[in-house]
Amino acid sequence: MADLVVFGEDWGGLPSSTQHLISHLLKRHRVIWINSIGMRSPKPGFKDLVRVINKFRAMFGLSGTSERVNDSPKPVILNPRVIPFHGLSLVRKINKRWLIKHIQSACASHDFKDIILWVSLPTAVDVVGALNEKTSIYYCGDDFNALEGVDHSTVNPMERELVRKVDLILVVSDALAQKFPGPKTVMLPHGVDFNLFSTPAPHPGDFPGEGPTAGFYGSLSEWLDVEMLAQTATAMPSWNFVFVGAVKTKIGVLEEFPNVHFLGPRAHSQLPAYVQHWDVALLPFKHNRQIEACNPLKLREYLASGTAIASTDFPAVRVYQEQVTIQQHKEPFSRVIQRAFENRDHSQTRQATVANESWEHRANQLEDLVNHLAEQ
């Protein structure tokens, strides 16, 4: 049975698609997980300073343990010692040496032998081929060329180099598949924790219970159409608009509306209690390259909850156009929400759409690929 060495984001917190998949593979494979090595250099400012301090603490064993994604066994977690200036050739050489030494030591300690290398970040490209791995996988869940908060001048050429070096590329959308060589690119769509989101949960009690509610959970970042949301909150004063997640962009006048409520981030296990008690769940994204290539995890989670969904138009949501109310050309988003609200009774139909798209099902598909690669 092959062992996995995985480069991902920081383990714990709100689980990514990589964490969902790997947590299921942990039932049959041993895993060394390398926490994020980043994709941009730190900038002056409080937020980046805090992240640098936290990374420093983690590197030297001063941080706490991470929350489990589910009941799966936990991987061996490495907090890599890297210098976050990947655009400098000397830094790349130093980081490569440190990473390889750290990972080889962990592999020796845990007797890892038949290694499959899984890379989710292009900045890990220099490790590919240096661990005597049997095979290598690039799991691409985003269009890094369009992603906010990335040093594109550094990451883009790293991704091109990574694509040349790996044996298999896994992508989550058609738009991403078109970027890469066909012969070694395989589609692996996102899944959903269906049981978690479909099982009824009690009202969390921290947002207004009077009047209809439209809600969104996730990072409040550049890809949200804040101007459209402000217009919508103005047009629908009798509705409550609830946002669950960290605020990472300027939200402007939204904070001034009495019917708009920002609750801050919540653990992934708590999210069903929110979305199940909204009248309409929102996907209010901008129209840009990043959204064109995205396949948001919350889309399937919303569907599994049974809640009516109002969305702007982008490729991934069109797959579920029979179950999601999608904004038409120049249609006010307030009207989209109202149309979704009028269709709110078809919760079982929405749930049935994703009942067979669980993360366990996706992980079984991945298991077949991993076993095939291990046998080569």
UniProtKB/TrEMBL annotation:
It holds the Pfam family Glyco_trans_1_4. Its EC number is 2.4.-.-. Signal peptide: none annotated. Gene3D superfamilies: Glycogen Phosphorylase B (3.40.50.2000). SUPFAM superfamilies: UDP-Glycosyltransferase/glycogen phosphorylase. Keywords: Glycosyltransferase, Transferase. One of its GO terms (molecular function) is glycosyltransferase activity. It is an enzyme of class 2 (transferase). This is Glycosyltransferase.
